[in-house]
């Protein structure tokens, strides 16, 4: 089968790889209907983090049809169209039951599988995959694929930021996750949604998703603008969807004392001074999003065409064009790239 | 009037100070019935943080009788016996209304007033002071005084750790705040309360307050013990009541993914690595405790003799003996010192 491999920074190739097969009785194999490139794939592409193996199979987002199941799999069957999270989970341990499937005691990071490929082995299929109500129309594919990571991650960020009626929510980051957080905050009923963005096209999509205010300033200047817009108090909650030192403090300082910061940008070089944090008085919660918690609801919202998160994809390429997709995202010519199969 | 002044590390004196008087129409003056020495008073005593002025009036915990009120004060009257928080607050701004009075937009840290004294000026009296149902019996004084800071701080830590029925709560720190957190977790219905302690007398009080398990190991060894006691998962919530790098990570690593860390130890030299924190998946919330939020309930529980937090005081001295009180706490001969007036 064909799949994407990264050999080092800037070096992405589409190659023949060993076929995906059942290894454990709890596995399923799916034929991908679409895959995509994640902002987090850019960290090793830019040399900002090492590869775990060389070459490394890439990709952790996926939708597709089940082609084979292991002997113990009961919740999905061959032929089902499924969506899964970027972290495989048993969905039965106490951590999963509390809604933190991404930290399941048996979790498997799907990045180790590599879903930018024709087929993929899905570990813990019963706890990981959610079948759609039927075979989806083609125009739903981008949105269902978004649910696999960026939508679910933005959703978790908005939930962690306690977005809800009467609330002012700020969003740091105008990438696919930040934009998904806008959509989530709107759906959760936030009254005012303030987005930090300097890109006209992303500002426009943010407004379409529900943003009420756009701030172009960054860092503490940006946070000061949020305070100015909120009677000096700051946002009730803020989603951090970047992962740098500046963006993290921008999020914390945009939030009022007692408010909520949901941080979902994978932290790179972030150091939080304990005393500074102490006096902000915010709630800080984040980490790898437990997308599986939200999948049934998100799939239904997409199926009913209530939300259209697939709009975050602004470049579509065949799997064989993956290298160009990485370049386009690296050079910010694309927000998020969908790979067709 | 007599009051405690700190001239530098290890140098505490009781001296004549200018009388407390009404400055703003929102002020009250109280005659202290008792005051005490806080663990946080030891930081400058040990040279671990600078004095804000030299000499510095000391103390921020207080109970007493109102002797004078400003023209705008309506909620308390001369003769009332009152308890207040270590942070004065207007109790009307949006931050106060959300229950974060310690971060009130008009907050005044009572440490700048210095309540280890015969009298004290209380700013924002209407929003800060809570009158008891009547003049208290003498044996209630220690508990009412504890409510002014350590009890309310431990309570906030336990609430931030989401202590409640069915929950396992770990407590890092066996000082007066940590012990108060044990009492709070018990009152809030926690099923299992695990306390880290190496001191027999504090272990004994912890058990009296509701601790079910004691762990003597510290750091990651201590956290590993909590995991061992909880089926490999970790505590549902943990209170951090020390404020060092080791204690902070001990608390975080004692907590399961998706769990809650309430940190109320004033951070000294704590640096949190963003990526490490990201993958723990915990909720982190803390800061200067909004004691005012809890005061009406805590006063009633004490008045009804439902709780007896005054047991955290294990040395009582007259105000004139303050220097010996500081020495006893510094040398760990006392957990918490009450100063009589």
UniProtKB/TrEMBL annotation, chains A, B:
Gene3D superfamilies: Medium-chain alcohol dehydrogenases, catalytic domain, NAD(P)-binding Rossmann-like Domain. Residues 176-288 form the Alcohol dehydrogenase-like C-terminal domain. It comes from the Bacteria. One of its GO terms (molecular function) is oxidoreductase activity. Its cofactor is Zn(2+). InterPro entries: ADH-like_C (IPR013149), ADH-like_N (IPR013154), ADH_Zn_CS (IPR002328), D-isomer_DH_CS1 (IPR029752), GroES-like_sf (IPR011032), NAD(P)-bd_dom_sf (IPR036291). SUPFAM superfamilies: GroES-like (SSF50129), NAD(P)-binding Rossmann-fold domains (SSF51735). Keywords: Metal-binding, Oxidoreductase, Zinc. It holds the Pfam family ADH_zinc_N. Belongs to the zinc-containing alcohol dehydrogenase family. The lineage of its organism: Bacteria, Bacillati, Actinomycetota, Actinomycetes, Micrococcales. Residues 25-124 form the Alcohol dehydrogenase-like N-terminal domain. This is IMP dehydrogenase. CDD domains: FDH_like_ADH3. PROSITE patterns: ADH_ZINC, D_2_HYDROXYACID_DH_1.
């Amino acid at each position: 089968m064909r799949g994407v491999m990264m050999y080092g920074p800037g070096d992405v190739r589409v190659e023949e790889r060993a076929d995906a097969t059942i290894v454990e009785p709890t596995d399923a194999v799916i034929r991908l209907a679409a895959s995509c490139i994640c902002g987090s794939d850019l960290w090793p592409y830019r040399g900002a983090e090492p590869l775990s193996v060389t070459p490394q199979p890439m990709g952790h987002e996926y939708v597709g049809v089940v082609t084979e199941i292991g002997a113990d799999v009961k919740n999905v069957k061959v032929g089902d169209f499924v969506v899964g999270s970027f972290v495989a989970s048993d969905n039965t341990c106490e951590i999963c039951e509390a809604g933190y499937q991404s930290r399941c005691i048996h979790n498997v990071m799907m990045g180790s599988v590599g879903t930018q490929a024709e087929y993929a082995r899905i570990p813990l299929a019963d706890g990981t995959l959610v079948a759609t109500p039927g075979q989806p129309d083609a125009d739903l594919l981008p949105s269902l694929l978004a649910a696999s990571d960026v939508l679910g991650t933005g959703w978790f960020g908005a939930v962690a930021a306690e977005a809800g009626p009467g609330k002012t929510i700020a969003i740091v980051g105008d990438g696919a996750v930040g934009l998904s957080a806008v959509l989530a905050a709107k759906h959760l009923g936030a009254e005012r949604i303030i987005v930090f963005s300097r890109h006209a096209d992303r500002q426009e999509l943010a407004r379409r998703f529900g943003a009420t205010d756009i701030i172009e300033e960054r860092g503490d200047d940006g946070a000061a603008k949020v305070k100015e817009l909120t009677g000096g108090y700051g946002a009730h909650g803020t989603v951090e969807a970047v992962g740098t030192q500046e963006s993290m403090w921008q999020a914390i300082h945009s939030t009022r004392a007692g408010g909520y910061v949901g941080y979902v940008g994978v932290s790179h070089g972030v150091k939080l001074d304990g005393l500074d944090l102490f006096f902000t008085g915010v709630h800080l919660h984040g980490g790898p999003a437990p997308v599986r918690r939200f999948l049934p609801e998100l799939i239904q919202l997409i199926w009913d065409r209530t939300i259209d998160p697939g709009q975050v994809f602004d470049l579509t390429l065949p799997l064989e064009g993956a290298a160009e997709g990485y370049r386009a995202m690296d050079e910010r010519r694309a927000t998020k790239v969908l790979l067709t199969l």
